[in-house]
Amino acid sequence: MAYENITVETRGHVGLITLNRPKALNALCAALIKDLGQALDAFEADDEVGAIVLTGSEKAFAAGADIKEMQGKTYMEAYLSDFITDGWERITTCRKPVIAAVAGYALGGGCEVAMMCDFILAADTAKFGQPEITIGTIPGAGGTQRLTRAVGKAKAMEMVLTGRMIDAVEAERAGLVSRIVPAADLVDEAVKVAERIAGLSRPIVMLAKESVNAAFETTLAQGVTFERRLFHSTFATEDQKEGMAAFAEKRQPNFKNK
Ligand code: CAA
């Protein structure tokens, strides 16, 4: 399928989505969000794809929601259309892992979309920020919530109240990104990590993702119980038997996603 605002390709068992609206630094207009949703739907439905990478350009992962598109919206238009809900939250419902590979600006909605992914790999050029306060609004795609959970109140509050950007080093130190890689290697490295995940047992990967995500929604005791039940359920899979047999027999496992 041809898209206007993104490019899509499959590398091995990895679905690679590249935001591609260079004139607006990948600002997240409605059409782009629709393209992104359709691409995610397609990769989720493709049995050959085990993990997804979402990236942008060297200059910008995404510079936020499209300010020019939204500037004239009335309150009633924003409310009745549930602006920033439809489509935007598609990433958070993906069952396959989604890795954000961020180079350049990830601002406002761009930072929020990156944070909706399962983890963020940052190029050394990456810059993260929630500058909405400087244009008379506040983050609307989860920034005040996910950033606070990722980096804690002090840094999140400073970023949200001042719009200050942080670079890749500060983002890694704060726990916003899993690690930093040279910009030139970013996409290859992200695809490599995704390919490694795609080579594991898909149902077990999905259970692991579900379990980590439960940490954001539950008390510790509830989360640990949920994890324990999912852990128990892995013993019902052929892949658990294969994985442990392969370890004991000193060979590589041959997972069948069963
Ligand atoms: N929306 C619409 N257009 C945008 C945009 C955005 N978020 N960000 C950049 N652009 C456009 C610029 O208007 C410009 O277009 P023209 O060439 O037609 O003028 C083009 O992209 C290039 O941008 P700049 O000339 O500004 O590039 P720069 O290198 O000088 O600056 C930047 C880069 C610092 C990222 C700057 O573009 C900027 O501050 N962008 C806006 C960042 C922002 O405020 N994001 C938050 C948006 S609100 C939001 O996201 C709400 C939410 O929570 C969902």
Plain-language structure description:
The chain is α/β, with parallel strands linked by helices. 43% of the residues lie in helices and 16% in strands. It has helices spanning 30-45, 67-70, 75-80, 109-116, 143-151, 153-162, 168-174, 186-198, 202-214, 220-234, 238-248, and strands at 6-11, 14-19, 51-55, 60-62, 98-102, 105-107, 119-123, 127-129, 166-167, 179-181. The protein has a six-stranded mixed beta sheet, with helices on both faces. Strands 4-6-8-9 form a four-stranded mixed beta sheet. The longest helix is centred in the N-terminal third of the chain and has 16 residues, at 30-45. It starts with 5 loop residues before the first strand and ends in a 10-residue tail after the last helix. It binds acetoacetyl-coenzyme A. Residues 24-25, 27, 63-68, 84, 105, 107-109, 112, 131-132, 135, 139-141, 143 line the site of acetoacetyl-coenzyme A (CAA).
TL;DR?
The protein is α/β, with parallel strands linked by helices and 258 residues long. It contains eleven helices and ten strands.
